[in-house]
Write a structure and sequence with these properties.
Chain A: Keywords: Cell membrane, Membrane, Transmembrane, Transmembrane helix. The structure holds 2 protein chains of 2 kinds. By secondary structure, chain A is mainly alpha-helical. Helices cover 72% and strands 2% of the residues of chain A. Chain A has one domain (2-248). In chain A, the strands form 2 sheets. In chain A, strands 1-2 form a two-stranded antiparallel ribbon. In chain A, strands 3-4 form a two-stranded antiparallel sheet. In chain A, helix 2 (29-51) packs across helix 11. A 6-stranded mixed sheet of chain B has the order 6-7-8-3-9-10, sandwiched between helices. Classes of the chains: A mainly alpha, B alpha/beta. Chain A binds chain B through residues 1, 191, 194-195, 197-198, 200-202, 204-213, 330, 333-334, 337-341, and chain B through 65, 67, 86-89, 91-92, 97, 99, 103-109, 111-113, 115-117, 119-121, 124, 142, 145-147, 149-150, 163, 167.
Chain lengths: 343, 251
């Protein structure tokens, strides 16, 4: 069963590589890069929410932390390799501590959502107040609501003058997305991932088996934070400025909507959801006839009503049941039953 | 308090006793669900806890497993005090626990449910072997690939039992393993319990006297949070007080 999923993952990667080369024929590199970064960000929540059952309302915190960690360390170091690692490590550690606090405190569902939401607000408010000269880390001024520009963007490791931008930044981001996808797939196929899914299904049973669910959830949450931080660092390199807006509620809500529309319990779903809705937002931003937020809301409502499991899982089961219609009943029952853990 | 068989209070050597409670009490607000219970279980013993609804069997059971933290009193498992431990640490002592409502991972396959349990203390390879073995022993082969959420109640009970024995416990705590099962399933359950009892001691909370008769266990009768008596099936059945509080009500 696990090997089937990994074989599916190989097809996904293959399709991803084709898409990577086809997409630039339709859209410019600048926009595409952002869509890929959104995809990576959605993947991080898709992992912890869809497979770990942890609804985090503050995924933007880790995204923003990654972006700021990158910007601050890149401004100080002047080369991008170390800052990239720092941008993964800082949100990873922060997510682990925040997660441990919540999970060891036995917070679940709504309370977890509230805490993560509040943490987002705290960061948003705090970053807006850092305009003064006293908020300086090394040579980097945080810059408050004006944001923080002028740091070293992504370069070829070891050569600060060889910037990676435009088309090459796009390909780097896309390859990173594919690599992270494969790593997450391997993680989910490993005992750690299988136990994480079991915790989503029935936490008390997993504890009765003798596993430490709280620690495992904290680690999974931290991994999600690290991936979001990586997305933030790539964003920082793409935008060449980081602003407190990264921590905004709107950003957090968008990540959740991407996952719902794309389909929870899959990895491809959130990524495609992010890219599609991200593009739609971009396209709608170029016209003034209809309000952008209205259409986003409408899409969310329609998807929740018509395809409650999300677009990708619905497509998969529609495709899956038609192509297996002739198989014996028992086999179909077993396959379709995998349900949420597919894809 | 009277003890029907074996351990008079403090009479037996400790090493032989694998589970003991001393003055265990659990209060919920003004209600005392378990009242000063002292209980002993010997190695490889098979013990049933019976009693009318609300007698405190399940609360007592939950205090043993760590799902509830007792108000006062102590729990010793294999001479280790485990009072107030979380279930995960109790389970790690080698104790298999089955709760009243089947607690299984509904979205996963039968095989995956059992494998995850076997994996905790074995490697991947050994877990694969154990899983195959458990599936065969419990006759789950036909439904091994099915999603547990789609199975019938009796099958889910059996899957949970599979989860319990896949961890190779030396002490097994079962809360109403035969509840809601058909006659044939109960028969199979009895056979499984005897098989488990070859390597492990068991405590079974159960209502069904027929079931208890067929596993021929030592019985501890609970009434109003306290132990009313302990003894063999026949001794318990012929006791007037037991008939009053429990059996009489069944007509």
């Amino acid at each position: 069963m696990e090997s089937t999923k990994l074989r599916d993952a190989a097809w996904v990667v293959l399709a991803g590589i084709v898409l990577m080369f086809v997409a630039p024929l339709v859209l410019n590199y600048y926009t595409l890069t952002l869509l890929v970064i959104y995809g990576l960000l959605a993947l991080s929540l898709g992992l912890i929410w869809g497979f770990g059952g942890i609804l985090c309302f503050g995924q933007a915190v880790f995204y923003g932390l990654g972006a700021y960690a990158y910007a601050v360390s890149a401004a100080n170091i002047g080369e991008s390799t170390m800052p990239m690692l720092i941008a993964i490590a800082v949100p990873f550690v922060f997510a682990f501590l925040l997660g441990a606090m919540m999970f060891y405190g036995r917070l679940t569902d709504v309370y977890l959502g509230v805490i993560t939401l509040v943490v987002t607000l705290i960061f948003f408010r705090f970053m807006n107040t850092t305009a003064g000269p006293e908020y300086q880390i090394g040579t980097a001024r945080l810059g408050g609501y004006n944001g923080m520009p002028g740091y070293q963007t992504l370069n070829v490791p070891g050569d600060p003058s060889a910037y990676i931008y435009d088309s090459s930044l796009y390909y780097v981001c896309f390859v990173i997305l594919l690599v992270v996808y494969v790593l997450v797939r391997l993680l989910l196929a490993s005992p750690f991932g299988r136990i994480a899914v079991a915790i989503r299904e029935n936490e008390s049973r997993v504890e009765l088996m003798g596993y430490d669910a709280r620690f495992r959830k904290s680690v999974l949450f931290a991994i999600g934070g690290g991936i979001a931080g990586l997305a933030g660092a790539l964003y920082a390199s793409w935008a060449e400025i980081v602003t407190p807006g990264l921590f905004s509620l709107g950003q957090s809500a968008e990540i959740i909507i991407w996952c719902i529309v794309g389909g929870l319990g899959t990895l491809v779903g959130p990524v495609l959801g992010a890219a599609a809705l991200g593009y739609l937002k971009f396209a709608l931003g170029q016209q003034t006839a209809v309000d952008n937020v209205l259409i986003m809301g409408l899409i969310l409502v329609v998807v929740v009503l018509v395809l409650p499991r999300g677009v990708v899982p619905s497509l998969m089961s529609a495709f899956g049941s038609s192509s297996r219609r002739n198989r014996p009943n028992a086999v179909r029952r077993g396959r379709r039953g995998r349900g949420r853990a597919d894809g | 308090m009277r003890f029907g068989a074996g351990g008079g209070a403090g009479g037996a050597p400790m090493a032989d006793v694998v589970l003991e409670t001393r003055g265990l009490t659990m209060r919920f607000g003004g209600v005392t669900a378990v009242d000063n219970v002292s209980f002993k279980l010997r190695r490889n013993e098979l013990r049933c806890l019976i009693g009318p609804n609300g007698a405190g069997k399940t609360t007592f059971f939950r205090c043993l497993t760590g799902i509830l933290k007792p108000t006062s009193g102590e729990v010793f498992i294999d001479d280790v005090e485990t009072t107030g431990w979380d279930p995960q640490f109790v389970a790690r002592l080698g104790i298999g626990i089955k709760t009243q409502v089947p607690s299984v991972m509904d979205g996963l396959s039968v095989r995956e449910n059992i494998w995850l349990s076997a994996y905790r203390q074995a490697g991947t390879k050994e877990a694969d072997r154990t899983t195959a073995d458990v599936i065969e022993r419990l006759g789950l082969g036909d439904i091994a690939r099915a999603t547990v959420g789609r199975l019938a109640h009796g099958e889910r009970q059996r899957v949970e039992l599979g989860i319990v024995i896949a961890a190779r416990p030396w002490l097994v705590l079962l809360d109403e393993p035969a509840a809601g099962m058909t006659g044939e399933e109960v028969e199979r359950m009895v056979a499984i319990i005897h098989e488990i009892n070859r390597d492990a001691a068991l405590i079974i909370v159960e209502h069904d006297m027929q079931f208890i008769r067929s596993i021929a266990a030592q019985i501890t009768v609970f009434s109003q949070g306290a132990i009313l008596m302990e003894g063999t099936v026949d001794a318990v059945m012929s006791d007037a007080r037991v008939r009053d509080v429990y059996l009489g009500k069944r007509g």
